[in-house]
Specification:
Blueprint (H helix, E strand, L loop, with lengths): L8 E7 L4 E7 L4 H14 L8 E5 L3 H4 L9 E5 L14 H5 L10 H17 L1 H8 L8
Parallel strand pairs: 3-4
Antiparallel strand pairs: 1-2
């Protein structure tokens, strides 16, 4: 028996105050793909010199690499090690995984289609996502 794996990754961004989300399906997790996602996210979220976006990230190697090219209007804050409970986006993964539980996919394309459809649904679930990610102790204007 020869095992063969194909991978698909989901990048998710959330604005906790509104529940607005941005989703990206990518084939790899590395700085090359992170740079592309960050550039796309900054454009789609309307980052500009007048609208600076704070991006909270864990300390994954591809997040902290000196090869990461942050768009000018994105500022990052790295979380302390081993603190996923401080990352609002961590609470999104159970929602993303919901249509995948106990399912079998014949191809990576089939999986991608299900995930893409799920991400579209999640973009409409702003109230539910706000309730999950807008921590009561989070204070910002």
């Amino acid at each position: 028996m020869q095992h063969r794996y194909e991978w698909l990754y989901v990048y998710g961004f959330v604005e906790p105050k509104t529940g607005k989300t941005y989703w990206y399906l990518i084939p790899r997790v590395n700085t090359k793909w992170l740079n592309l996602v960050l550039k796309t996210f900054a454009a789609e979220a309307g980052a500009s010199p007048q609208k600076i976006l704070l991006l909270v990230q864990d300390r994954a190697g591809w997040h902290t690499s000196n090869k990461v090219k942050l768009p000018a209007s994105l500022v990052t804050e790295l979380l302390p090690p081993y603190s996923p409970e401080l990352q609002p986006a961590e609470r999104l993964w159970s929602l993303v995984d919901e249509p995948l539980v106990n399912e079998h996919f014949e191809s990576i394309e089939q999986l991608e289609n299900v995930l893409a459809a799920r991400c579209c649904v999640l973009q409409e679930m702003t109230d539910e996502i706000k309730n999950l990610t807008h921590y009561h102790w989070l204070n910002y204007s």
